[in-house]
Amino acid sequence: MPSLTSVLGVLDPTSDRAVFRQIADALREAIDKGRFREGDKLPSETELVDHFGVSRMTVRNALSLLQQEGLVLSEHGKGVFVRPRPPVRRLASDRFARRHRDQGKAAFTVEAEAAGSRPEVDSLEVKEERPSQDISARLGSPRKVLARRRRYLLDGRPVEFATSYLPLDLARNTPIAQPNPGPGGIYARLEEMGHRLDHFDEEIRARMPSPAEVRTLQLASGVPVIHLVRTAYDAEGRAVEVCDTVMAADAYVLAYQLPAN
Amino acid sequence: MPSLTSVLGVLDPTSDRAVFRQIADALREAIDKGRFREGDKLPSETELVDHFGVSRMTVRNALSLLQQEGLVLSEHGKGVFVRPRPPVRRLASDRFARRHRDQGKAAFTVEAEAAGSRPEVDSLEVKEERPSQDISARLGSPRKVLARRRRYLLDGRPVEFATSYLPLDLARNTPIAQPNPGPGGIYARLEEMGHRLDHFDEEIRARMPSPAEVRTLQLASGVPVIHLVRTAYDAEGRAVEVCDTVMAADAYVLAYQLPAN
DNA sequence: GATGCATACTCGTATAGACGAGTGGGCAAG
DNA sequence: CTTGCCCACTCGTCTATACGAGTATGCATC
User: Fold this and answer.
1) Topology of domain B89-254, per CATH?
2) Which of A13-17, B26-30, B144-148, B251-255 comes out lowest in average pLDDT?
3) Are A208 and B221 within 8 A, CB to CB?
4) Residues 38-67 of B with CB within 7 A of strand D
5) Would you say the C-beta of A60 is within 7 Å of strand D?
6) Where in chain A is the domain with CATH 3.40.1410.10?
7) Long-range contacts of residues B182-191, Cβ cutoff 8 Å, at least 24 apart
8) Mean pLDDT within B109-114
9) Is B199 part of the contact surface with chain A (CB cutoff 8 Å)?
10) Residue B224: CB partners within 8 Å, gap ≥ 6?
11) Residue A106 has pLDDT above 60, yes or no
12) Residue B124 pLDDT more than 90?
């Protein structure tokens, strides 16, 4: 095995760059150059302390930088590893097209199985509640809404947490209020009930997750979330659903097609 | 002024939650409840040390947690502040519609001024180069491309860094190869040259910035980037441009409209 | 009044040491 | 062979201390 010096180099004591940044730079470069590959274990903190001749806090400082960048993840009792890039789920802009809605299964399940992954949906909760100010405004200020919460997992890993809100007068005592709304999902049910869907508006933000989101999505540090809010409009221009989705950003790429007009 | 104890509470020594997490929780809660507002200065590290009766490293550990979450930002010599939410730029899905293209000014400038901000475009670089594998594949494998790089600023703050790539056979010796391509931008020039634009594909990812991106966008820690890659197609189905854009995620919300088909 | 310095405050960087807790391998006992 | 324990190694948490560097303020000097 190659010596640590040949992989990581040495510190430049004349540099005004902070030592822990130099160490982070050395590790980052080694990872970029493929000297450490996805899933590889980095040298232990003790080894880095010995190699660079610095204190352990300095090494930990460097590693925490890389962790914030999402480059590595540390596992208690095992070591620090180059973070593997998970398979990415691609969301196409036609994913709600009517032609994708006839299957007996949910779109998420069909698509995941086609990609060779094992899909799961859990923590399904369906209840009536008072909408937040934001949701209320988007739905035309209904007094109460039906909220459908669920979490999506791929191969056991949570990747997405979504809540659909529908005006209660529209959803109460319909299949939409059931845990499983049936083939084609709630959009198929809405259309059966005479709300022909016209278009969707989507708003996309990216930010760091809240502690609660870190828990439910089991996010490694250094992984942002994509926050997507979709509003569905029927042919009369009424907002019939708002879907608030938080996705692990390292598991998704969103694709849209725009006309040039 | 209220006592620190009434604002932050005290530690629970019986809890198995790490002390620095308890401190972070206390500060987070105080911020959420509005006891510290945007731009407010948090108690100094020394004050927190005295209040909680812990060592400074523990306090710094707590603050660094909040910083990773994007909640606060620290300024050397001044203090730690609740991070102000910057004004957000909304990118609508019709932003490339032909009707927005007649102005003499660039779309970015018009839009920013309408929003009351002071727009700037800088570090404009136009050069011919060999495309990366990814860009090459998207453009139909041209041998060389014209690359147009620029950075956008709002009120002096960099918010976006973008590079447009065009096949060289299409762009060489045209206004597109000029630093300022003229009114309506390069899309207007492309259409004048007979490449009537048909549609755009956009791919969106979110991730933590690289160190280089932190520098050019002057990003605070805890701020992810949105990485957008747009491909423009003409009426013959040829990819005529790829635009690779990295945006400060706290400055943008992307909006799309999808037909329901 | 303007300039410049001293000072006190802020966070940034670094050292050295200690103990806790999760993991995995080896070894001894059953 | 299996079970269970010990041990070595890993990262996690915390203390105590020191000095450097950026900022703001006030005061003395010009």
Assistant:
1) Chorismate lyase (3.40.1410)
2) A13-17
3) no
4) 53-58, 61
5) yes
6) 89-254
7) B183/B102, B183/B103, B183/B104, B183/B105, B184/B101, B184/B102, B184/B103, B185/B101, B185/B106, B185/B107, B186/B148, B186/B241, B187/B96, B187/B101, B187/B232, B187/B241, B188/B101, B190/B232, B190/B234, B190/B240, B190/B241, B191/B98
8) 81
9) yes
10) A206, A207, A208, A224, A249, B206, B207, B208, B209, B249
11) yes
12) no
- The alpha-carbon gap from A84 to the nearest alpha carbon of chain B, in Å, equals 14
pLDDT at A53 over 90: yes
CATH fold for the domain made of B4-82: Arc Repressor Mutant, subunit A (1.10.10)
Q: Where in chain B is the domain with CATH 1.10.10.10?
A: 4-82
Confidence of residue A104 (pLDDT cuts 50, 70, 90): low
Is the pLDDT at B102 greater than 80? The verdict is no
User: Is some CB atom of chain A closer than 8 A to the CB atom of B237?
Assistant: no
Token pair for residue A41? 């274990």
- CA–C1' distance A44–C23 (Å)? 14
Residue A181 pLDDT grade (very low, low, confident, very high; cuts 50, 70, 90): confident
Better-predicted residue by pLDDT, A86 or A103: A86
Mean pLDDT in chain A? Answer: 92
